[in-house]
Amino acid sequence: xxxxxxxxxxxxxxxxxxxxxxxxxxxxxxxxxxxxxxxxxxxxxxxxxxxxxxxxxxxxxxxxxxxxxxxxxxxxxxxxxxxxxxxxxxxxxxxxxxxxxxxxxxxxxxxxxxxxxxxxxxxxxxxxxxxxxxxxxx
Length: 138
Fold this sequence. Notes:
By secondary structure, the protein is of the alpha/beta class. It is built from 5 helices and 5 strands; from the N terminus they run βαβαβαβαβα. Strand 1, helix 1 and strand 2 form a beta-alpha-beta unit. The chain is globular, with a radius of gyration of 14 Å.
C-alpha cells in the first residue's frame, strides 16, 4: 500500500500583493512530497475555503502580510467548519504579533510561522500533524 500524500492549499487572502514567500513555501512543500495547490493572490476567505473543500485537502496554508490576519484566518476557519471540515489544519505565516497568534490558536488555528522560519520547520510540523491524524483515523 502506498502512503497517501498530504494535500495542501497555499493561499494569499486579502489585498496583500507580496507572494514571494507563499511561492517559496508552495515549492518547498511540493519538493517535500506533498500535493500543493497554490490559489494565487487576492483570494477571499470564501474562495480559499471552496478550493480547499473541492480539492479535499488536509491543510490550508495562509500567507498574510497585510495585518488582516484576525479577520481573514478566523473567517476561513468558520467557513470550513460550516462545511463539516474541521479536520483540515489551518496553518500559515506572516507578520503576526504574538498575542494575535495566541488568540488564533485558541480558536483552533494550528501553528503560525513568522518571517525567517526555515521551510524545514513547517514541513516537519505538517508531516507530524498528518501522521498523528492518520493514526487517529486508522
